[in-house]
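Please complete every field before forwarding. Incomplete forms are returned to the sender.

SECTION A: IDENTIFIERS
Entry label: holo-465
Bound molecule: 2-acetamido-2-deoxy-beta-D-glucopyranose
Molecule representation: SMILES string

SECTION B: INPUTS
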Amino acid sequence: MLKMAQVLLICCLVGATNALYKQWIPDTNYENKTNWDKGEVPCGSDTVQFSSQRKVSVFVETTHAVQEMTLPMDGEIILNSGAGFYVISGQDPDCGAGVMTKFKDADSLQWFNPALWQAAATLNDLQDGHFLFSVHEESVPCQQDDVVFKPLSSFRVDTSSSQTTIPVKSVSVLGNVFDSKSEFSEYLGSQSGLLQFHGSSSVTVGNPSCGDATGCDCGNSVNHERICSTVTCGTLSCKKPLLPIGHCCEVCGTIIFIHFSDSFNLENYRGRIRHLFLSLPKYQSIQLGMSKILKPQRLMGIIPFGSSPEIQVVILDGETGKLSEVLAQDMTKDIKSHGSNLGITGAEIQTASEPGSSAGTVVGAVFGVLLVVTLIVIVVVLIRKGIVQMPPMPSMPSLSRFRRNTDVDDLNAAADRGFDNPIFDKPDMLNNISGLYSTDSISMTQAGVHFINPAYDENEIDFTV
Ligand SMILES: *[C@@H]1O[C@H](CO)[C@@H](O)[C@H](O)[C@H]1NC(C)=O
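SECTION C: PREDICTED COMPLEX
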């Protein structure tokens, strides 16, 4: 239920990641040895077999000698200019005894598999191999992205999904860029189109590019489960792994949530971080993904209450997360001194190291939904003054127990600090970064209800049903 509500809210609010190029990695090229069952491109003594039932579009770049070739019932071979096949009689001296080599089946490769895409900010970056890291949902093409199938190659992609269409800005196939809806749907109906794209949904082009300089929401959260079904998560070595929004796996690293104003520019900020920090030798092992996400807000930490756009910066260092924390501190310093020029109004940090250091350094936080804060403050003040009594909770079994019930004292202590809302009390927000928000912001103990603010750490909540 809760999930459903979130999904609805997320898809109904217009969010806005800037357009990137997303390139499909696999190909169905004759010359790619990963496409052959023996792991080698067949040579002149070999017998080549394409499974008769499989549909496939094969791109051939050069000339090849074969002994014999079995073709599929429904398929095509796209010959590059100058490419072709010839038969040599007897054994090919460069090849040895001939074997039977089969072209592998490409039917199972799914559009929504994040491992099969690489992303870059420009076509040049794509060619030079300067790829961008992103959370799983955004590894797959977003609605404002340009999709690239490598020039001089063919492919076969399963576009099945629960939606009828997969909207993107443009699709480039064999070097032809399609950005008109009608032209691309015509291509999809062609012989090549039918062999390259299969599955229940159809890719549509012509979706507008991201017109918002602060970024655009990717739009793939509706396909989150499909995307994550293809991902296997590794084992983690940190104490308190984090789950970035849009990612399928918990990570040992650091997340910064940036609050921005209209003057923020995502592309510029991404460039700034690249030049100021990521280019430094000490940060070579860092993977950093930055995008606009819709962060779910919850009333009193439990009830879903819409979502607010924020910039999520996911920083991974491939290890325990310590180096990512160092970078996060550097970025925080930069925000403190230049935030106002960059259109950044605040930032929160979540780290994966042990509790204590993870309370979350707050740099002038501004809540997206002020109302939530106001309501919490009012309710708590009323309860403290005895004007309102907490109703007994057993009627809501799902809220009856939290993992950290044992830490009651801890929570109480945290509650005493919990109300220092920087919006109300601290005019010079940017200069106060002293754990104003602790992860455990409110507790009302005897009634058995502890509010643990999930805005800072979703992992803290353990609903027992
Ligand atoms: C061959 O295919 C594999 C897997 O599909 C891909 O990773 C690789 O880049 C391809 N090789 C070339 C030269 O394109």
